[in-house]
Specification:
Elements (H helix, E strand, L loop, with lengths): L3 H25 L2 E7 L11 E7 L2 E9 L5 H12 L6 E4 L4 H10 L2 E4 L4 E5 L2 E5 L19 H11 L18 H8 L3 H13 L3 E5 L2 E4 L2 H16 L4 E7 L13 E4 H9 L7 E5 L4 H6 L2 E3 L5 E4 L18 H11 L2 H19 L3
Helix pairs in contact: 2-3, 4-7, 5-6, 7-10, 8-10, 10-11
Length: 359
């Protein structure tokens, strides 16, 4: 059964696809034959639907994703999503600027926007139109409060809750009374109230039974969280940066008040990366730690210490030395190279797919 919030989101997606197809059609002759909204198949979770259209005698079938806004981090996430699709990927969005168009083209992600900018390719067909200005300037807005720093911190707590998919009333953190969520996370009761109201309004939290709420559209929610974390939250968390003459110093390091993230965490979990950066969430390193591992302060250094934005006593067990895989995934994307983007995809497949695609 579809919730009202899901119906509203699908109607919005449908309208944007229709506007973009009309704008591109006026310039190229493209006609949209039909489209369907909703998950296509389990292996293609994360797509918003499937579209079929005709252009210059060619018939194309593409899974598509609708995005209200676009930046380099979203492009990287789309690149990962495209790799999971045998039929390619079509991005539908209000506007693609020249720089974004080039990034998408290089990543092989097709697109069309409401201004008529488009990139489509198939055997015997190559269409590229860029440089068309947005029809309307985006309204100045601070965006939903759920994606302000406090909202991002609460979302992290909800997404990493080990009881997230417990169907029993009031067990999952998202299902509890606001005062209980406040007590568990350390946020003010009023703060929980307006963030949860935002999530409900956006259709990201829905009631699925008496006393049972859950997070829905989790792939899209994860994308939004990663984008907000990288742009809004993470830059303010870095407390110290260092460099070391020994790139493998972390192998013999023991963190008494910290957890590994990023490349080192991925290397410890899967062993596929040779870390070029070191990311630690925890207290500033004591002087003895710095001396032991020959760390030297460097504002551009590859060794970074960040302040935790969640309660550190929330680790799963005493033997765990790494942050939650969601944070490892985001920190790998923050490095912004092909090697770490591929590592992020591996982390998603191994540790996150069962969480993110559960609802």
């Amino acid at each position: 059964m579809m919730h009202n919030s899901e119906q509203i989101a699908m109607k919005t997606d449908s309208s944007m696809l229709d506007r973009a197809a009309r704008a591109v059609g006026e310039l190229t002759g493209l006609t949209c034959e039909n489209f369907s909204l909703g998950p296509i198949a389990r292996k293609q979770e994360g797509f918003d639907g499937m579209v079929r259209f005709k252009l210059r005698g060619h018939k194309l079938r593409r899974p598509f994703v609708v995005k209200q806004s676009l930046n380099s981090d979203v492009v990287h996430l789309l690149t990962l999503l495209k790799k999971a699709s045998e039929d390619g990927l079509l991005l539908v969005t209000p506007h693609v600027n020249d720089r974004q168009a080039e990034m998408l083209r290089k990543a092989g992600v097709e697109f069309m926007d409401e201004s008529g900018n488009v990139f489509l390719r198939a055997p015997g067909l190559h269409v590229l139109i860029t440089g068309r200005r947005a029809l309307l300037s985006p309204a100045a807005t601070s965006g939903p409060r759920a994606f302000h720093p406090c909202g991002l911190k609460l979302l992290f707590a909800l997404l990493t809750d080990s009881q997230l998919d417990n169907s029993q009333p009031y067990v999952a953190l998202v299902s509890r009374a606001y005062r209980e969520i406040a007590a568990a996370t350390g946020f003010a009761h009023s703060t929980i109230g307006w963030i949860m109201a935002d999530l409900i309004r956006l259709g990201m939290v829905v009631e699925v039974g008496k006393g049972v709420r859950t997070l829905v559209g989790r792939y899209r929610l994860l994308e939004r969280w990663v984008q907000g974390y990288l742009e809004v939250l993470r830059p303010k968390l870095v407390t110290e940066r260092y460099r070391s003459i020994n790139a493998d110093w972390w192998k013999n390091a023991s963190l008494e008040n910290g957890l590994w993230s990023g490349e080192v965490a991925e290397a410890k979990l899967t062993g596929t990366l040779k870390p070029g950066t070191v990311t630690v969430f925890g207290e500033r390193p004591p002087h003895g730690f710095v001396l032991k591992h020959s760390l030297q302060k460097d504002p551009q250094g590859p060794v970074e210490f960040l302040s935790p934005f969640w309660r550190m006593d929330g680790r799963l067990d005493s033997a765990n030395t790494c942050v939650h895989p969601i944070l490892i995934y985001a920190d790998l994307l923050a490095i912004d190279d092909d090697r770490t983007r591929e590592a992020a995809r591996n982390v998603y497949e191994r540790y996150l797919r069962s969480i993110i695609e559960a609802a």
